[in-house]
Amino acid sequence: MSTNKLKNPTLIKFCYIAIGGALGILGALLPWMYAIIPLLCIGIAVYYVDIKKIVEILFWVVVVAMFLGAYLSVPGHESIYLFRLLLPIHVFLLLITQDFDIENLKKYRAYFILLLLYFVASILSLCWAGSVTLGIRYSYFIFEICYLFVICFYHLNSEKQFMRLFQLITIFFSLNLVVGIIETILGWHLPLSGSNVYITTTSQFQPTGFLFNTNDYALLLAILYPVAANYLLEFKRKNLGLILYIVVTVMTIYVVVSTYSRIGMLAIGISILTIFFFQFKEKGIIICLLQAPIFLTIAVFSSFGKNLTDIIYSSFTGKGTSTSARGHLYELLIQIIQDSHFIGIGAGNVPRQLNTLLIGYAEDSSEAYVTGHNFWLETIGNIGVIGFIFCIGIFTLYIIQLLYMKSSGKWHLPLLIWISFMGASIALSTILEKRFLWFMIAFGICYIKYHSKKEIRNE
């Protein structure tokens, strides 16, 4: 709001000083009056400052805070981090801005309905939840997911915004990649890395980047790679972009393989091949045939290649115990679903029930928590089939709208994001708390909508 609207700026300033002085005097008598001073400052800021501009800046700060997570937190209190502090502020400013663009959000009406119903289903399930505390925690994460979708729908509405996000994702992806390379080669990890906590025969050189878990890190790289690779391939300086694309791709393969994550390897493999052949088309086949002898030589005769080959082989053949354990968890999840008559046992209560079934008795400690490693079965177990339908509806609608992108040259990006998310949903211990996965799905939806609209305009 412009200060030109004020009839007498001098008088207004005098009033502010008078009010501040009065509050100071009253505060000496009634200390609680001092609490009005920061509220007054906020009111003045809201009156003078362009709220829309602040909301715009906050969006990018929120995105950075989301990716860095606990590394932007209160020291010693990793659960209190910048993302959670900015969330209520951003929501409040978004609601009070006078230029709130409702028209732009109407095209996402179906997603809003599904998200709202998904959230409501989790809230209603608290009525029969064994632990309401766990249910509130579960519902809060769904609220965060809804928030991420809303801010993406609101802000990602132009080519300029998409390019900024492409740049930001590429920078963050590259930083994560560099950290992963250092971890893999030197065995050094960031302070909040799980490799400092879980000591196994391979953990010392398993990368985690800015995350805690190595599997999470592999899927983070897999879901961000399509965006980063596409950005590098579209550099104005084509040769530089191509060189960076090759370097980043080789580094990504090395780091993801070093995580020992099977789904991570499959997801990144699909992404690399899809982007490569999409970019080079028929030339890609010729390039592969010409380069195949070189790759085979490196894989068979070099220590570097043999090491990667051994890791891949052991990852897919040496995890029989892990695979059977997950199979048993799936059986228990199905049992929980059936015992609840498909209405769920209450939001967030499946992990505790899983622990009870595994050890044979109920335990109330915070450690009595076992995740099912299958988001879809856990969703049915938590909030029932109806809640699951609302959740899966979001991803079904995503694919349906992707099919309607027609001849867009960018269809593969949202598809690869969707594939990586689906892989993560059955690979990671839980994905409800993995904000970067949900943010990328929201980004994919916006990307589909924007390019579909662009095609209609071109026609």
Automatic annotation (TrEMBL):
Membrane-related topology note: Multi-pass membrane protein
Listed name of the protein: Teichuronic acid biosynthesis protein TuaE
Keyword terms: Membrane, Transmembrane, Transmembrane helix
Domain of life of the native organism: Bacteria
Pfam families xref list: Wzy_C (PF04932)
Cellular localization per UniProt: Membrane
Protein's UniProt keywords contain Transmembrane helix: yes
Domain O-antigen ligase-related: 248-390
One GO cellular component term noted in the UniProt record for this chain: membrane
Residues that span the membrane, as ranges: 32-50, 57-74, 80-98, 110-132, 138-156, 168-190, 210-233, 240-257, 285-304, 383-404, 411-430
Species this chain originates from: Listeria rocourtiae
